[in-house]
Design a protein that fits this description.
Elements lengths: L2 H33 L4 H5 L15 H8 L5 H32 L4 E2 H20 L5 H19 L8 E2 L1 H10 L5 H17 L8 H25 L4 H8 L4 H12 L1 H17 L2 H6 L7 H6 L2 E2 L2 E2 L1 H21 L1 H12 L2
Antiparallel strand pairs: 1-2, 3-4
Amino acid sequence: MNVRDLRGKGRFWAAFGCLAWLVFTLFPLYWVAITSFKSPVDVVGGPTYFPFLDFQPTLTAWKELFSGVRGEFFRNFWSSMIVAVSASVIATIIGTMAAYALVRFSFKVRLASGIAFFFVAMGGYLLGREIFGVGPAKASILAFCIALALSIFINRYRLPGPVLGNDDIVFWFVSQRLFPPIVVAFALFLLYTEFGKMGFRLTDTYLGLTLAYVSFSLPIIIWLMRDFIASLPVEVEEAALVDNVPSWRIFFGIILPMSKPGLIATFVITLAFIWNEFLFALFLTNSKWQTLPILVAGQNSQRGDEWWSISAAALVAIIPMVVIAGLLGRLMRSGLLMGAVK
């Protein structure tokens, strides 16, 4: 057996492995698609694989979905679209600004100022609640503002203890995603409820859900965009500074266009996270701004999970992300590669 035969067999097995993996990844989508066209009898009667051969397809699940029998589909769809796109855009812009600052500027945060912030914030909240009888929302806002101002002020002085740098700040951002989401969602629900008592409603509103998703997405965006921006040549910015170009024009006119692939990759990843997020939407909405994951989870009855309706709703929830990933796939791949190879 010569080298050419070995190469031919290697290509055959490589192609076979890729084809097997393709079938393995696409079969769940195929199964969801054909299940959405099955009747209840076909679903519970045993596995069937081929329309018109194993079973007679029907549009019952789709008619029920679009007619409103299975919930306010169009309202949930547009709620998901509006919240996901706007929150992804806002979070990507803010996160990119933070990542740029963490790459191009040096920050020093004294650990003592962070400890002071924690104790002043916690003590101020307890003092306002227990001594002065202030409501939870007002006590939280006042304690946070006072603690933040005090920590910024004392951070200017030489304090005992270690000094944290940019890498420590990035680690702190990423560590926020280590908390169990149920803890954050429940805390946000309590906070939004208290704001509602003050006359500023945030539960089941566009603003409340968008703010939650922006804060939820910022750590991963800062982490990703930091690598993208670090791979950009700093000489272009230095040349602009020599020409007295303002910093905001450097960021919007030079940094953002140069990091376009990275921005698109980060935006698509963030959009996928928000589009598929379930827990925050479950806690923070009840009717008007419920998203598609809530609709999909609600496709059941007293008889149990009705998989034909779940499949139709899930397929509609999958299609937009597939279309976006297909349209932006090339830029997304180049952006991920740019962030991985510096």
